[in-house]
Amino acid sequence: MNRILIFTLFSAVFLLSCKSEYETIRTSNNPEKIYKAAQKYYKEKEYERALGLYDLIIQYYRGRQEAEELFLNYAYCHYYLNDYILASTYFKNYSSTFGNSENKQEAEYMSAYSNYRLSPNYRLDQTYTYKAIEGFEQFINLYPYTERADLATGLLDEMRKKLDIKAFEQGMLYYKIGQYQSAITSFQAYINEFPETKKMEEVRFLLIKAAMELAEKSIYEKQKERYEEALQHIETFSKKHASSRKMREVKEYKNIILKVLKNFA
């Protein structure tokens, strides 16, 4: 029991002394002393304390010799504290401010990677996914033959697959709830945005089905035009996927449309 009490008291005293040391430095109004302590905390991976001190002196050191390392560490503090929005901004600012730095490539990559860390599940808003994609594409253009470019390419593929799934699921949702015009619009946008997708045959087939449903459920005045649009989707499918197992069903749809269109002649 006495040992536990002694250990508890020792820990409390130690923490208070550490806090006292930090507060003394923080309120010292001595930029050099604060900078030295901030660097020490950063190396010890005490990023919250390091950031608190960097905040006090970052403007003071702007334009000075120490600024380059300070600004990079400042961005990393935000990154390691999971504040990826600010981390991305500060890494980008660093690469712009220190354009000749040997760390410019690293900062450019980390700016995009910070947005990648913000990229959520495909069901959620993908704003940061698009930002990360833009950042990595710019990075690859600037540094095409680097190890980080290879890493960026892999992450780009991952995020594009996520957007692929989201776009496909959006079209499917519209189709399932009977919003056929919206489904058609979504599937057409999907085809344009993801021309290399492995789901192209499936999407073009769903486009036919959605167009057929829309035509059948349209008022008489719009049916002819919409059946003709469905026929165009059938012709495209037949050219692009002539050996598809779905061709038999596609031909049946075509025969139905041709019979219906005769009534409008």
Question: Can you describe what's shown?
Answer:
Helix content is 78%, strand content 0%. With 265 residues, the chain is mainly α. It is elongated and about 90 Å long. It starts with a helix and ends with a helix.
Q: What's the total number of strands? A: 0
Helix content: over 70%
What distance separates the N and C termini? 99 Å
SSE run: HHHHHHHHHHHH
Structural class: mainly alpha
Q: Which residue ranges are poorly predicted, with pLDDT under 50 across at least 5 consecutive positions?
A: none
Looking at the structure, what is the overall shape? elongated
The main β sheet shows up as: none
Strand content: under 5%
Mean pLDDT: 93
Assembly type = single chain
Number of helices: 12
Rounded radius of gyration (Å): 30 Å
Provide a brief overview of the structure.
By secondary structure, the protein is an all-alpha fold.
